[in-house]
Amino acid sequence: MSTSITLLIPLLLGIGGFIVATSRARRFSDVGSGKMHSLPKYHGYLVALSIIVPAYLIIFLWLFFEQSVLRGVIVNALPDALTNGATPAQVSLLISQVQQAASGATFGNPDPAIVEVAGRLREAVVFSRWALPLVIVLVGLATAAVLVSRIAKRFRARNYSEAIMRGLLIFCATLSILATLGILLSLLFEGLQFFSRVSPIEFFFGTRWDPQIAIRPDQIGSSGAFGAIPVFMGTLTIAFTALFVAIPVGIFAAIYMAEFASPHVRGVVKPLIELLAGIPTIVYGFFAVLVISPFIREWLGSIGIAVSPTAAIVPGLVMGVMLIPFISSLSDDAITAVPQSLKDGSLGLGANRAETVTKVLLPAALPGIVGGVLLATTRAIGETMIVVMAAGLTANMTVNPLQGVTTVTVQIVALLTGDTEFDNPKTLAAFGLGLTLFLATLLLNLVAIQIVKRFREQYD
Amino acid sequence: MTDIPASSRLAGAPRSESAVSDIRSGLSRRKSAQTRLKIYGIVAIVFALTMLGILVGSVVSTSIPAWTQTQVRLDVTVPDDETPNYRSLVNDSLVAAFPQAERDRAALRRFTGILSNGAQFWLRDELQASGAAPGSTVSIWLPVSDPFEQLYEGVISPSTPENRRPLNDQQIADFQSLQQQDRIRSVFDWGLITNADSRFPELAGLKGGLIGSAFLMLVCLCVSVPVGVGAAVYLEEFAPKNKFTDFIEINVNNLAAVPSIVFGLLGLALFLGFLGMPRSAPLVGGLVLAIMTLPTIIITTRAALKAVPPSIREAARGIGASEMQVIAQHVLPLALPGILTGVIIGLAQAIGETAPLLLIGMNAFVTSAPTSMLEASTTLPTQIYIWFDSPERGFVARTSAAICVLLIVLSVMNLFAIVLRRRFERRW
After folding, report:
1. What integer pLDDT is reported at residue B6 of this predicted model?
2. Domain of life, per the record (chain A) (predicted)?
């Protein structure tokens, strides 16, 4: 039985349970004296919830453990002659041979022992596919039977079903923590493995980044160097180029829209600028390669400046355009949030609008603007597609935006595409970089939130 | 006593005059400072809007060649055997069109080069669809290969020196003789949407990517909407104000700022590495995007719930509704338009996301559309990336066209969100 049908069974059972329980409760409410404690539909909800929630829990756990149980089946079924003294890698090779034989993909003449085990595996898979729905149906029917038999005038079905709902809501809220925890744990787990092979001192202070490792010892090639300073420098060069574009443009645009533009102009321009934030970053990356890169090389080439094809200025400039709406709308919010009384006071003393902006509004809005800039910085260092498409792969120790640089995100993508064995420093290095990136953005974001919060307290 | 004001007036008169002129000159200086600030603002806005214009304009104009397909008309004799060799059928029809190719194998190879490599499959499908009787002759339009398509559309110009273009003079002459025979046409290329990916730009389409993206959105919707709305309802309506809920709140805000590629690392380590889910599967991609969209949905849903005035809640409580009934029967229906807007905005963000999908292998080369959640698949943005990475000239236009499709999908979603907000927004 396919998994998608299995996933539907609890829902159907739940609907069935709802109908049965509701109609039974309705019959109860018609006979005898006194009112029902709960409306019939709450009896229905209670039955439906107590069928659906455990059923999905069972399905989830079942699928979670199925793979490891099936591996156990294979290992047990394999003849001892094959498994005795085998290394874990050999065992997993055998297991994957069996799995392929079971799915019908065999090459050459497979070992008869493996074919036999594959037959056992197929039986086990079929058993698992049929046992799961059976278990769900049995558990569901049993729950429904118990609860339906307990329907009575005094049965507090509403309270129970609301308690279940409340539990589900709490579960949803904790899932968001689990997401962060999942990120942190997976990065830490793989990242620490990386740092056990490459010392953190080399990683954070080394100046040579060359993660290609020779596969055979006799191969000519690099032995791998994991000094991430050039990668960090490349990331910062591109991020600062982007901020160099985005901060003035964003802030001046925000000042104009908050203080000078007529409501009509503002109503047209503000959504248009915010469109820039809605464009997927892959589109910006394509734009950088298609338009900006040739343009900059031609323009600077015509005045005699040589620009590398993967120069940091290209992704930097495009990323700057992408960040304009972040800075402009957060600055706009910060400026308009300054109390009207401060503005009126300044205008009343004879200052004109520009002086009010520069001497009163901007200083008062500064924390909000700084918060916006920090958030934009987080975006800039974590941005991936623009740099993957427009920046280079070689790590150069430079802060010159006209030279090719690489970034943390480019390296993560380059190290992880195509190769997912988690046992060499090359792929693990991506997790080391990812951990650094995650912690850096976390820190920046916490600082930004603190700054914005402090600013709010000043005037409320 | 009288002297002092007089003297002060006397002394003050010239001073006030100079002060007035000071102020006058200062006034113009201050005014020009204000004008400068205004000009900076206008320049900034014009810069941002120009960039937006160039971006959209360049993508649309580059995409133009990809929307049409250049085709050659060949007269094909329908074969009468069960499993005909379509490749030789194509060659026979070419010989019929160019009698000089009959003996000359080099010429025949040159002419077959005009047609797309997939021409034989195209011919098979067309013949089977037409149902023409065996032995009869039908005219069939077959797609040309990428360089000739570029030639027809003027991207490759015959006036450039021969060694600087992918086609030599002979090939161009062949193509022009076809044009003189009126055998070339250009039609709207539905294949861009109805074909799956291919190595040949003239046959590559977005079907796989579109269906893959639809699967991803389905998973994302099924996971992130119930969880996100549930979490928001709990945090906004039930949660006691304590350290734990503060922690959840900070955590949600931080999750919203985590770079998208980190979610890809999570998917790689957790779903692929630890749980052993298949690579490139829409299920995994959808789960990664769901975790990524979760904070957006929680934050917008909380804002929508907050906007429902307390009077509604109090009225409901006043007539004896339980806390859960207040929320399910009164607050949620009123907050629904806001929640839906947030959901659409979150999904629009997710559908354009590429970086995390690269890490879980959704940039695989897959030549068929996925039919299940566990099959290898691409998505719309990763398909764009694959084409961007391909060296063939024709893929530049295909990439732009795919970006246009993505932008159209996004505009439709956002327009829907705006309409929803306009239509159902209530002011209290």
Report:
1. 47
2. Bacteria
